[in-house]
Amino acid sequence: MAINEQEDLLVSKPSGSTRREFLQQASALGTGLAITSSAKAKGLPVNKINFSTPGNVTVSLVVNGKNKTLDVDPRVTLLDALRENLQLMGTKKGCDRGQCGACTVLVEGRRINSCLHLAAMCEGAHVTTIEGIGGVDNLHPMQTAFLKHDAFQCGYCTPGQICSAIGLLKEGHATTDDEIRESMSGNICRCGAYQNILDAIKEVHSGI
Amino acid sequence: MDIIGQPIDRKDGKLKVTGTATYAAEFPLKNIAYGVAVVSTISKGHIENIDTSKAKALKGVLDIMTYKNAMQLHQFSSEGPGSGKFAEKDLLPLQSERIFYNGQYIAIVIAKNFETAKHAASLVKVTYNDEKPVFDINQPEAKIYQPAQALNGASPKTERGDATGALSSSAFSIQETYNTPVYHHNPMEPHATAAEWNGDELTVYDATQSVYGNRAAIAGMLGIAKEKVRVISPFIGGGFGSKGFMWGNSILAPMAAKFVGRPVRIVLDRSEQMFTLAGRRSFTIQKISLGADANGKFNSIRHDTTSETSFVDEFVETAGVATKILYDTPHLDIIQNIVRLNKGTPCPTRAPGEAPGTYALEVALDELAYKLNIDPLQLRLTNYAEKNPDDGHEWSAKYLRECYEKGAASIGWASRNQKPGNTKQGKYLIGYGMATATYPANRSKATVGLKLYQDGHAVAACGTQDIGTGTYTVMAQVLADSLGLPIDKVDIKLGDTIYPQGPNSGGSQTMATTGPAVRAAALTVKSKVIKMAIADKKSPFYGQAEEGVMVDNGKLFLKSDPSKSETYTQVLTRNKQPMIETEITTNVSTREPQKTESNPTAKDGNDKEAGSDNKQAGAKKIGASKDETKGNPFVKEDEGHDRKNMSFHSFGAHFVKVLVHPLTGTVKVEKIVSVMDVGKILNDKTAKSQIMGGAIFGIGMALMEGTVYGPTNGRIVTKDLSDYLVPVHADMPIFDVQFIDKADTNISPIGARGAGEIGITGVTAAIANAVYHATGKRIRNLPITPDKLI
């Protein structure tokens, strides 16, 4: 896989912004500059950032099909917004810096590392977390396949692996074992369930 | 009905695939505050000044805990993790201004939200008085010494005959030094603790491999009664030893919660904190000498190891431990030395000792085999230990020959060309390597509470943990099998000190320890119900002998006439019993020296008081009001088994095929065949996952993992997952895991030995040996990165 493709997968475009714009926005927020003026100067979509209580921002998300409005610190990542503000603890924090994949969720159907996104930049985004993939009484076929193939041990990376696997199938370009392995390499499993994860993905892929 | 051995799906699987399994940092606590650690940036010295004013002025910061205002802790650290081993006994956190290593706790910032706490942590200004640290063994100040003892009281020195003299008189010999770097566990779940006080009672949600151990240590350090502390850990996101000893987070969260008067959660940052505050595997320098005759029969083995520890505790990576028992030799010398460095304290890492030790030993055997021009597999068979060479005891069971045979056949060992660097597959050099795996078959003490309810379902509870190994699942299988219930009618409760005391999840002992206790409890309850039925005039079994009544699928039936039957529910309903319960302890130690009556808790790592804790705060207990161990026939059958003069170890063999690119030096492991003799397999699916997981740790050790320290300051360079590489999907070979699957009836009536650690042993050597076979290059410094091959 070419590097630019990989980057493309990791960075969502919830509001149609590019990676460069995203970083600029993130940087502006992080340094606490006068956002409105600096953002205007750069031609950024300032109308998408709403300020409510001083120091906080209001963000509207569609999480697992439900509209959610959050009043959060602008430094809150999408990961922490899901976990701490929406109590959706299925999405895991493994490294908080985009290196492990435990926080993988689907935004607009594409897999992203939710720790690399600020919640404030996801205004209007459709986010699907493991809780939206399927529950214990209505498992998604990928969850069923993970269970059947023992594609996890401690279970901590598992929601991220499942979201990533579902995102991967939608991408449609991984058909061989090696391609699936390469495309799943952003999701670390320290227990080492990799072969079983591969078997689970292949089973869903082939529609068995 | 035979549920034991079936490859059933994990009982906790649905929770894990739906993200509803709850880990330490995920319990909803009202009014929770967030604690973020500030760590030292020097390696030795003391804090001259710590200025928290700017951080404290930040809106949302509740308080900042430093050595100046933190509560005074009591010295408490036991010898073993089961009884509460604080990892750094001489450095209880935030108790003084002294700095012993880079990345040491110096403050906890507590704020209303995580972002504020993290920002405030960056505003804490510290000035230090530096002293010259010793962080490298090659510094002249580094002092190497022999420790008094290693983990579990193991001796640092073993001598048999005259190894040095025998070596010089051997016809053939090799003497080489093997180096393994520092490895970090890196479980996917960072260490996390949330603490909540309710008056003088404390609840701790902790990522730990030992709820009972951490309860003892937390209570001990706080100076309060154990009964006031409840530790909860139903799921942990991987431990691999890093959550076996207790680390600072587990005590700092209760301290911080007291400090600010509300619940506090502390989660370590992956970057740096998980590398300095949560243990690691020490580096090893291993000098190995092998002396043999022309046929390869050993005359002498020497294995001399040096590893590191800190200035605040002593942990010994006993790399020679497996060398004592693996091969027959008349002369043997095992020496273990350590060096104190200004670094955090190492701790057990998956197969501590055996993992790096079998790398060095099994590569040395390969070197000797090539020198003698004999098959490396034949060399192992020539020196096969029919009895434990260390003490002369019989093995409880050993099928290592069968492991060798099956593995060799599966990889095509006999048909390879043994000449190194001589076989190609396309553009790649290909190589085959093998090595022996071994790990002790540990078993200790466990208490299990069991309730069989009138509606025909049963719940067993034990204060041990499922760290991803499958404890929930295999315990359920043992319970269902022993009680005669379908698997969906049994439930297992773990990871909470409200349950009776179970073992720490370490030393691959969990299932071998809790399984027999579950079995004895289940048989006790079954017997009670049968007795109730045969005493009941309305029962079809009235007046029958107990032995004549069987149970299957929740139904009692007469062995001689299966048409006579009734269900558990019918017996209990008629006798107006809402439930039948019991609490049973089995106490067997397979660690040498064998436990005696007068020394019942010898080295089992357990809290001295067995059984459940009736006074546990807020307890909703599972288990009978009275312990029914005494005189119990099922316990007697198990504990009474003659284990004297018997040695308990598991064995196995790894066979590996690698591809090495001749120009770039990249190594791809193509296939690993692992054949393991770990006694009876309780669940083929979870057991295979254990072995694969261990082997993958071995791939990491062999090819990519290794912590790098800055040469001038001792700070960790590879301090996150982009610099410390662990195996990912793309690194995976094809795995072929096979089991001998013969019950070891000497370890327990169930016959199962642990499988969590043996998978990592030997595999690193097998890969290194395969790389040698492919390239003719012998790499004695792990990891085998491409630069070492080109």
Strand-helix topology:
The complex is a heterodimer of chains A (208) and B (790).
Chain A (H helix, E strand, L loop, with lengths): L2 H8 L8 H12 L4 H7 L8 E2 L5 E7 L2 E7 L5 H8 L18 E4 L2 E4 L12 E3 L1 H4 L7 H8 L9 H14 L5 H7 L10 H12 L3
Helix pairs in contact in A: 6-9
Chain B lengths: L12 H5 L15 E7 L5 E7 L1 H4 L4 E6 L31 E2 L5 E7 L2 H10 L1 E6 L13 E2 L11 E4 L2 H6 L3 E9 L11 E7 L2 E6 L4 H12 L6 E4 L15 H13 L3 E4 L5 H4 L7 E9 L5 E12 L13 H4 L4 E10 L13 H19 L3 H7 L11 E2 L4 H12 L12 E2 L2 E13 L4 E9 L4 E5 L8 H13 L6 E5 L15 H25 L14 E4 L2 E4 L6 E3 H7 L4 E9 L45 H7 L6 E2 L1 E12 L6 E11 L6 H20 L30 E6 L23 H13 L15
Parallel strand pairs in B: 1-13, 11-12, 15-16, 17-27, 21-22, 29-30
Antiparallel strand pairs in B: 1-5, 2-4, 2-6, 3-5, 7-16, 8-16, 9-14, 10-11, 10-13, 14-15, 18-19, 19-28, 20-21, 20-26, 23-24, 24-25, 28-29
Helix pairs in contact in B: 5-6, 9-10, 9-17, 12-13, 13-15, 16-17
What amount of the residues of chain A lies in strands?
A: 5-15%
CATH 4th-level superfamily of the largest domain in chain B? Aldehyde oxidase/xanthine dehydrogenase, molybdopterin binding domain
Shape of chain A: elongated
How many helices of chain B?
17
Structural class of chain B: alpha+beta
Let me know the CATH homologous superfamily of the largest domain in chain A: Beta-grasp domain
Helix content of chain B: 10-25%
CATH topology of the largest domain in chain A: Ubiquitin-like (UB roll)
CATH class of the largest domain in chain A: Alpha Beta
Low-pLDDT stretches of chain B are 594-614
Instruction: Give the count of helical stretches of chain A.
Output: 9
What does this molecule look like?
The complex is a heterodimer of chains A (208) and B (790). Chain A is an alpha+beta fold and 208 residues long. Chain A folds into 2 domains: 3-132, Ubiquitin-like (UB roll), CATH 3.10.20.30; 134-205, DNA polymerase, domain 1. Helices cover 38% and strands 13% of the residues of chain A. Chain A is built from 9 helices and 6 strands. Chain A has helices at residues 3-10, 19-30, 35-41, 78-85, 130-133, 141-148, 158-171, 177-183, 194-205; strands at 50-51, 57-63, 66-72, 104-107, 110-113, 126-128. In chain A, strands 1, 2, 3, 4, 5 and 6 form a 6-stranded mixed sheet that branches. In chain A, a hairpin with a 2-residue loop joins strand 4 (104-107) and strand 5 (110-113). In chain A, helix 6 crosses helix 9 (194-205). In chain B, strands 3-5-1-13-10-11-12 form a 7-stranded mixed sheet, with helices on both faces. In chain B, strands 7, 8, 9, 14, 15 and 16 form a 6-stranded mixed sheet that branches. A 5-stranded mixed sheet of chain B has the order 18-19-28-29-30, sandwiched between helices. In chain B, strand 20 (445-453) and strand 21 form a beta hairpin. Chain B has 3 domains: 31-134 and 167-346, Aldehyde oxidase/xanthine dehydrogenase, molybdopterin binding domain (Aldehyde Oxidoreductase, domain 4), CATH 3.30.365.10; 353-440 and 648-790, Aldehyde Oxidoreductase, domain 4 (2-Layer Sandwich), CATH 3.30.365.10; 445-639, Aldehyde oxidase/xanthine dehydrogenase, molybdopterin binding domain (Aldehyde Oxidoreductase, domain 4, 2-Layer Sandwich). Chain B has 790 residues and is an alpha+beta fold. Helix content of chain B is 23%, strand content 24%. Mean pLDDT of chain B is 95; it is low at 594-614. Chains A and B meet through helix 4, helix 5, helix 6, helix 7 and helix 8 of A and helix 1, helix 3 and helix 16 of B.
